[in-house]
Amino acid sequence: MALQSLDIKARSATTSPSPAVRGEVIKVAKLIDISKCIGCKACQVACMEWNDLRDEVGTNAGTYDNPRDLTDQSWTVMRFSEVEVQAGKLEWLIRKDGCMHCADPGCLKACPAPGAIVQYTNGIVDFHEENCIGCGYCITGCPFNVPRISKKDGKAYKCTLCSDRVGVGMEPACVKTCPTGAIVFGSKEDMIHHAEGRITDLKERGYKNAGLYDPSGVGGTHVMYVLQHADQPGLYANLPKDPSISAMVSLWKGVTKPLASFALGLAVFAGFFHYVTSGPNEVEDEEHTS
Amino acid sequence: MTNHWVDIKNTDLALIMGGNAAEAHPCGFKWVTEAKAHRKAKLIVVDPRFTRSAAVADFYAPIRAGSDIAFLGGVINYLLSNDKIHHEYVKNYTDFSFLVKDEFGFEDGIYTGYDLEKRKYDKSTWGYQIGKDGFVVTDPTLGNPRCVYQMMKAHYARYTPEMVSNICGTPKGDFLKVCEMIAETSAGNKTMTIMYALGWTQHSQGSQMIRTGAMVQLLLGNIGMAGGGMNALRGHSNIQGLTDLGLLSNLLPGYMTLPSDAEQDYKAYIEKRAFKPLRPGQMSYWQNYGKFFVSTMKAWYGDAATAENNWAYDWLPKLDKGYDLLQVFENMNQGKVNGYLCQGFNPLASAPCKVKVSGSLAKLKYLVTIDPLATETSEFWQNHGEYNDVDPSKIQTEVFRLPSTCFAEEDGSLVSSSRVLQWHWKAAEPPGDAKGDQEIMAGIFLKLKGMYQKDGGAFPDPILNLTWKHRQPYSPSPEELAKEFSGKALKEVTDPKDATKVLVKAGEQINGFGELRDDGSTACGCWIFAGSWSEKGNLMARRDNSDPFGIGQTLNWAFAWPANRRILYNRASCDPSGKPYDPKRKVIGWDAGVGKWTGSDIPDFKVDSAPEEGMSPFIMQPEGVARFFAGDKMAEGPFPEHYEPMESPLLNNPLHPNNDKARANPAARVFKGDWETFGKPDKFPYVCTTYRLTEHFHFWTKHVKSSAIIQPEQFVELGEELAKEKGIKSGDKVRVKSNRGFIVAVAVVTKRVRTLDVGGKKVHTVGVPIHWGFMGLAKNGYITNTLTPFVGDANTQTPEFKSFQVNIEKA
């Protein structure tokens, strides 16, 4: 839902100036320190409770990951990876997966429905389902494979970074509940500073490649990780090393730039046409690639 | 806990062993992350599995389930032989220099006085040498071979790193690395905290595992210090309160004990427990036992408890034996129990050997369950397919289910692991016909009392005379009950040194147990809780978290027993002259100016006893010092010795390969018919251990949708090598069998469960989380305790859920 207390910076398929032109606000960020995460899943439950989400009671597929993947009802999940970076020294890396809130959001770029995806001036990328046409282009546009289409209403869902909480001065629900302080929230600048302290500590404890994950390929992110092995993000359940917006999305945007208004109008029409003729895109294959 | 949750932030090293704090106590575990963040503390995890605690540890060492005494005995040997002990501390604050009786001995794994038939020891030789003055004989030079130091050193010399590795399967290098890290905390200004839970208690030798951990802490001088201590992490909300209030069958409130059959004489009962000092100038606080006891009896029986009737001593039950969980189910199984009131407990899921428990419940005439949920126990008679395959037509037990409230639907206090009594307020009305537990119990009691009044009966006195002066007799309020356990003066209480000085007026709430009397002038339902509700009001409801000393003591937050003291034995945080060993984390210190001990905590000591007076810090002990030599207090011996679990992959104890008597705990109680239910490694070659997961709480949260979503289905964990041998892949259904039954669950094949080399033998472990059953919202599963053996710790009878033998196959 639109939040009047948060200014919109960018809006999908829209060229008119956004309220953000009035001035800058402080950019926010959530920092997830994987070296402090105990995989308790309290954040998953907090997310379910705050956002009134209840996924299916699933099955066990031979791992601790449950629900097994992100869905329209599970906006964040823990991904457990057993790795031996150093021979004989087992590590159990537990990564909280969900929307990264890219500064240069591929989903928003790809979205043909006006106002279905917005980016607030504070950096949060939010889906406004009332404008969503269910085309699934946001999934193609996302370098992290995050958005999921609901089978019930055919619209795309993902973590909102609790924009409704942040808009009234509260931290996201997952941050509030995290028992070990592995998830912290504040201005992006403060979070980077906090991460520096954590990285120094990890280096002293022998993790010589500890570092911050704030990938430049998407303009940086408003959800960042402290990684023990920042040189190998792939260890963390295939976190992409150099994420970037799909070439298809970029190309599409590049070619249409001179004809933006026309193309956007067409895109809306195309999306609408696609929706009324074929219904929402089914994206099951992509849902299970991670 | 000797210390408390918040104090863990003060540690330099956290050892999690026999527990899994990150997973089972995630909220408390945050204090470990605080210590890591602000003190650069290290975390060691020693566990059969690489747990979620291990995931954030600085060092992890694997261990075979049930071999912890061998590991810790090895640590003791390392500390003694590498001179990494806190010399001043052990010399002054422990029994290092005390001489042990000459008759006492230890041969090939068995202490003097063993009776194989009874599986019990005659402990008469297990004691110190007592001189003509009535005090223990000591040798301050520590040269005498009969002094505790020398005897302990000799005892643990056998626990070499090689032996440890042979028994535990821990690689020698890993074991030595742990030793080195622990040894650093022998410095006066370094501390280690030990965090343990059911991973130590649930063994046939669980109490001795904990004792060995405590001995390590004493050698290092870590007891009484901020950031130190032996910290039992209680799992069940208010299980600390349960033990404090004496709900175990052999206890009275405040760790007083019920008399035995042989103790019909009141005076002898008190004298046996009111220990006289064993060293000159010592406090021996249990000397006040009579005051605590009489005050409890006055709380229970009011005017009916008089000096003439020995404060109603005859109305107390006298035990012929313990009536612990296992004994009660044994009796039930023998058809000796007609009815069972099962309050807030789900024994079909929680007690060992489901087939025996289920069969025992079927022999009852009636079963009453008092619980907010429909538990497996209340449905034991119903067929739930493969998960509870019984024939209801053959079960005649009449079951009454009384719905009770959840914690959030009632006011009251809960005691945390930190010994903090914290008041809480009702957040919601209970649903439907649910009633509070005290309302249910009051109803049953008043009905019974009425029946005794009307019809008489055998020995009605204890029921008819029980004080019941509640404003609403059918629903006593939590406030009234709390005031009762805190205690009040029935007559004026005066200062023993000055009779004109009135400490408490008649009818007023007392301030603490120091005001209790044995002349019937005070009533107190639980002496250690005394003062929690004084004339100042309900101190348990305090919520002031100011921390003036910056080490997290927060004395105005709720109320900690005893006497609002946050760190027990805190006198031992100072040197003999009263100076804190670590001034930066000062708990208390001697202030010569005011002639008192002062600091961030309530002194656990006589507050005006100057260091020169020579009183020692462990004031509850008759010796005044901590014991390495446990005397006659433990069932299986004064020094912990490694024995194999009752079921083990080894046919003998590597420390005593030729003595079958010393294979498993010689003092563990085994009921006659249960020997045959134990399995041997030829048929059941793999070590099995059961445990909890973060996502669930016991057998309750499978009734909660969000918890069911995040951990929906029963699984077992096994290592890659065993999985390969058996052709099992992650996600396959497997059958895990013990000699008592089987369960079927999904396999999680993982690197986190390692195959261990135990004395040249490959030992595989199978891990079984406990949370599933046939009630609730999660996928139905098998009761894990189908697998577990019906045997407990020799001292507490806590069942051996953590190490037994199974086989596994693809289902």
The two chains with the largest interface, and their residue counts, are: A-B, 39 and 45 residues
CATH class of chain A: Alpha Beta
Q: What fraction strand of chain B?
A: 15-25%
Query: What would you call the structural class of chain A?
Result: alpha+beta
Q: How do the helices and strands follow one another from N- to C-terminus of chain A? A: EEHEEHEEHEEHHEHEEHHH
For this structure, what is the CATH homologous superfamily of one domain in chain B? Answer: Dimethylsulfoxide Reductase, domain 2
**What is the radius of gyration of chain B computed over CA atoms, rounded to a whole number of angstroms?**
26 Å
What distance separates the N and C termini of chain A? 29 Å
Strand order of the main beta sheet of chain B, please? 26-32-27-29-28-33
* CATH architecture descriptor of chain A: 2-Layer Sandwich
Strand line-up in the sheet with most strands of chain A: 9-2-11-10
What percentage of residues of chain A falls in helices of 4 or more residues? 25-40%
Using the CA coordinates, give the radius of gyration of chain A: 19 Å
The major sheet of chain B is characterized as:
6 strands, mixed, barrel
Instruction: Write down how many β-strands of chain A occur, each being a DSSP E stretch of 2 or more residues.
Output: 11
Stretches of chain A where pLDDT falls below 50 for ≥5 residues? 286-290
Q: Helical proportion of chain B? A: 10-25%
Q: Gap between N and C termini of chain B, in Å?
A: 43 Å
